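Final report, closing paragraph on structural work. Over the funding period we assembled a curated collection of sequence-structure pairs, and we close with a single example.
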Amino acid sequence: MAASSHFNTKSNFHGRPISLPSRLHPLTLKCNQHLETFLRSSNETSSPSLLFHKIDGLRDLIECVENLVQLPLTKDALLHDQHQENCVNILLDGSLRLLDVCSIAKDALIHTKECTRELLSNYKKKRRRNGCHCRG
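Its predicted structure, as stored:
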């Protein structure tokens, strides 16, 4: 057997390829431009005409973001995130229930221990009254 036979050139890992877009969606670029313009204008002094210009820029930014959110890929990503959040919430609820069960079990064990001590104490008292001095 050759030394190179220990290395399998074929991968045993079967991963699903991720096809991410190689460039940003045009709406994303447009939203970024509106945001940069709005942020730049927020540093300027506010005369009435500039204030109207800022409001128009903000309106354009909001419209662009609304259009971006309506894209099918964006909706899918948001739904996927919501699904993951729901899964996390389900896991957290299960963990809390498990903690509750552990707390109840701990309380039951403490109660059982106290009852056992009380029974043992009563048993020893009864044995002493009956005159049995056996060890136990």
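The helical segments are 26-42, 48-69, 72-129. Confidence is low (pLDDT under 50) at residues 1-11. We thank the funder for supporting this effort.
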